[in-house]
Structure formats: structure tokens, C-alpha cells
């Protein structure tokens, strides 16, 4: 009887382990398919950019012949990215590097065409510029979604005990589609009224703090009270001589009493 119970317990444990293994396996398959689906969205937007770039190059070439080097770089990088897309079909460090270089070349071209007012007023160029800007935004959003799925999948591949199932069924880590161009990672600094550059801001020269005036040391018995401030002396009001005073200010002459002769 005890042997039967032991066998039943072993079977129950094996069934639980099998359920756990199947659940982990299905989780890996589900996350791998999610990564592939998110990468297809990014690949669609990348191919959309490949279709827009030839028209952009030809439009700019008709107005800005001096930008020949930049246009040649865009054409070369586009061809290289298309060949990697056809050969690999998925994200890889080589393709991510080429795509970043292509994005940098397109950004440099958009900056350089600011010197050509006729090109900036061209209707075809404005429409291509708008479509490229929308495509770049969708590429950035798809890249973030793809990298988030890759991070969740790689975490399960490296975690315990799911890493055991990953090793048994050869679930390898996925590759991120990261931005490797430093210019695309660094945000432009903002400076009011001036053009700021990328990188650390220069340190401002600090002036030394103003030192207070030196005080005389205190010695016992040598304390002197400050001299009181003297008020400014008032000038006396100039008086007029008696001869020049008005008659109204001279005292009246005294009359002698009645019956007495005046005194000489």
C-alpha cells in the first residue's frame, strides 16, 4: 500500500513539473512571436524610408548641386541597408549601425538645405520632408516597442528556473535595435538668444568674493569713541544798518511831558 502511495506522489510531482515546463515553453514561444511581430512593424517603416529617399535625393540634387557628397552617402547607405535587410531579415548590430548612419546623413541633409530658399519653397520637397518626418517618428516608436519586448524576453531567458527551459529548447537571447549614434542620443541644449552646442556647457568664470575692509585689532585701554559729527554752522542773518532800516522798524521818539521844555 505504501508503495502505491509513493508511486502516486511521484506521478503527481512529475505531472506538476510537466505542466510548469509546458507553461514556460509556451511563454517563451509567445514572447518570441511578439518580438517578431514588433520587428515587422519596424521593418515596414524602414522600407518606407527606403522608398522615399530616392525621390528626396533627386529633388535636392536639382537645387543643391554642392551637396553631392551628402547625397552620395545617403544613396550608398540606403543600398547597404537594403542588402542587410534582404540577407538577415531581423535586427542585428550591423543593420542597426547602418540605419543610424543613414538617419544621421538624412538629418545632415535637412540642415544643409536651409541655405537654399528655392528648395525650401518647393512643393515636392516639402511633401517629402513631411513624409520622412512622420516615418522617422513611427520608426522611433516601433523601435521602443521592439526593445521593450526584447528586454522582457531576455529577462526570462536569464532568470531561474526559466533559464533551464531556455537551455533545453535552445531559446537564445534576442538582439536589441539600439541607437548607436551619439548625436541622436544627445539632446540639444537650449540657450536663450544663442545657438547652443551639444555636450557639456562651459563653466563660467567665478569672480572671487569681495573681502570686507580690515578691522583694527582691539587693545585694552585704547578704545576711543568716535568723534561726534558736528552740525554745519549756520551763517548769521545779515542785519541792515540802522540808517537803512525802514522807518516802520525804528522806535518812535519820546515826547516830553506836557509843560516841560524838550531836552537838547
From TrEMBL:
Cellular component per GO, a single term: membrane
Keywords noted in UniProt: Membrane, Transmembrane, Transmembrane helix
Transmembrane segments: 6-28
InterPro entries noted in UniProt: LemA-like_dom_sf, MamQ_LemA
Segments for region (Disordered): 203-264
Topology with respect to the bilayer: Single-pass membrane protein
Subcellular location: Membrane
Compositional bias of kind Low complexity: 216-237
Family membership: Belongs to the LemA family.
Protein name: LemA protein
Biased composition (Pro residues): 238-264
SUPFAM superfamilies: LemA-like
Endpoints of the signal sequence: none
PANTHER family in UniProt: PROTEIN LEMA (PTHR34478)
Amino acid at each position: 500500500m505504501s508503495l502505491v502511495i509513493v508511486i502516486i506522489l511521484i506521478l503527481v510531482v512529475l505531472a506538476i513539473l510537466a505542466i510548469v515546463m509546458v507553461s514556460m515553453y509556451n511563454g517563451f514561444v509567445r514572447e518570441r512571436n511578439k518580438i517578431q511581430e514588433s520587428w515587422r512593424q519596424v521593418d515596414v517603416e524602414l522600407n518606407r524610408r527606403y522608398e522615399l529617399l530616392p525621390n528626396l535625393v533627386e529633388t535636392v540634387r536639382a537645387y543643391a548641386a554642392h551637396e553631392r557628397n551628402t547625397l552620395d552617402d545617403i544613396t550608398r547607405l540606403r543600398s547597404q541597408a537594403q542588402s542587410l535587410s534582404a540577407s538577415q531579415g531581423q535586427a542585428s548590430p550591423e543593420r542597426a549601425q547602418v540605419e543610424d548612419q543613414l538617419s544621421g546623413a538624412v538629418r545632415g541633409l535637412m540642415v544643409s538645405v536651409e541655405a537654399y530658399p528655392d528648395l525650401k519653397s518647393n512643393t515636392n520637397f516639402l511633401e517629402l520632408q513631411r513624409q520622412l518626418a512622420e516615418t522617422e517618428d513611427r520608426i522611433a516608436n516601433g523601435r521602443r516597442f521592439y526593445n521593450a519586448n526584447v528586454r522582457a524576453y531576455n529577462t526570462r531567458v536569464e532568470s531561474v528556473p526559466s533559464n533551464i527551459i531556455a537551455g533545453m529548447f535552445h531559446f537564445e537571447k534576442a538582439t536589441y535595435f539600439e541607437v548607436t549614434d551619439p548625436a541622436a542620443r544627445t539632446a540639444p541644449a537650449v540657450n536663450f538668444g544663442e545657438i547652443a552646442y551639444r555636450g557639456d556647457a562651459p563653466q563660467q568664470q567665478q569672480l572671487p568674493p569681495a573681502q570686507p575692509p580690515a578691522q583694527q585689532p582691539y587693545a585694552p585701554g585704547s578704545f576711543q569713541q568716535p568723534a561726534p559729527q558736528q552740525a554745519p554752522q549756520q551763517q548769521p542773518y545779515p542785519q541792515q544798518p540802522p540808517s537803512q532800516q525802514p522807518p516802520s522798524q525804528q522806535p518812535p521818539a519820546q515826547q516830553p511831558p506836557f509843560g516841560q521844555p524838550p531836552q537838547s
